Amino acid sequence: MRIISGQHKGRRITAPKKLPVRPTTDMAKEGLFNILNNSFDFNKLHVLELFSGSGNISYEFASRGALTVTSVDENIDCIKFIKKTSAELDMDITPIKSDVFKYLERAPIKADIIFADPPYDFDDAQFKKIVDLVFEKQLLNEDGVLIIEHSKHTKMDKVEHFDVGRRYGNSVFSFFKINLEE
Predict the structure, then answer these.
(1) Which domain CATH number covers 97?
(2) Which helix (H) or strand (E) covers residue 9, if one does?
(3) What pLDDT is stored for residue 182 in this prediction?
(4) Average pLDDT, rounded, for the chain
(5) Sheet holding 46-50, edge to edge
(6) Are 46 and 61 in contact (CB under 8 A)?
(7) Can you give the pLDDT at residue 135?
(8) In 28-81, where do the E strands start and end?
(9) Which of 64, 69, 48, 58 is nearest to 137 (CA)?
(10) 131: domain range?
(11) Is residue 93 part of a domain?
(12) What total of structural domains would you count in the chain?
């Protein structure tokens, strides 16, 4: 995986093979950040990455100057890798070892962007639970967005707060926003 833009543009990061991860492809990540670039000033963002795995998305936000980046994953080896890599790159990323659902129940932060990349084999109820918890616990700042990466076989367009979906190969990014009438 590589960092596409920002302070560490072009930097390649190689995760150990033992990590149970499926990093977002460079093509999909580039598409995602092109969308975000048109809507957000990265220097003002508070970002929360859920199911962070190797930290691929966190590194991209940090490289682009996000104010805070928090990475949550339940795998200790993933957390150690993020901690080591962010230290080597002098990135201010806070890795947290936790079950994502438990973390969302008690999350002490609000974010402008929450990015979740759960296992593609999650069932519909597990995907929906991520959305429900983020909005029930009011974890997004005003004008914030929840982005869930999932396979093209998972349909999220009927889930409350759904805004738009973007497909890149076999991956889809579903965007969820606070409804204006709330």
Answers:
(1) 3.40.50.150
(2) none
(3) 45
(4) 93
(5) 93-97, 68-73, 46-50, 111-116, 140-151, 171-177, 162-168
(6) no
(7) 96
(8) 46-50, 68-73
(9) 48
(10) 28-177
(11) yes
(12) 1
Q: Is the pTM of this model over 0.85?
A: yes
DSSP H or E stretch at residue 111? strand 111-116
Q: Is residue 20 a part of any domain in this protein?
A: no
* Contact by Cβ (8 Å): 15, 54: yes
Give pLDDT, residue 19: 84
Contact (CB, 8 A) for 44 and 111: no
Cβ count within 10 A of residue 172: 20
Reported as a pLDDT band with limits 50, 70 and 90, residue 43 is very high
Q: Is residue 6 included in any domain, yes or no?
A: no
60-115 pLDDT per residue, tens = 999 999 999 999 999 999 999 999 999 999 999 999 999 999 999 998 889 999 99
Q: Is residue 4 part of a domain?
A: no
Residue type, 94: T
Q: What is the DSSP string of 128-176?
A: HHHHHHHHHTT-EEEEEEEEEEEETT---TTSTTEEEEEEETTEEEEEE
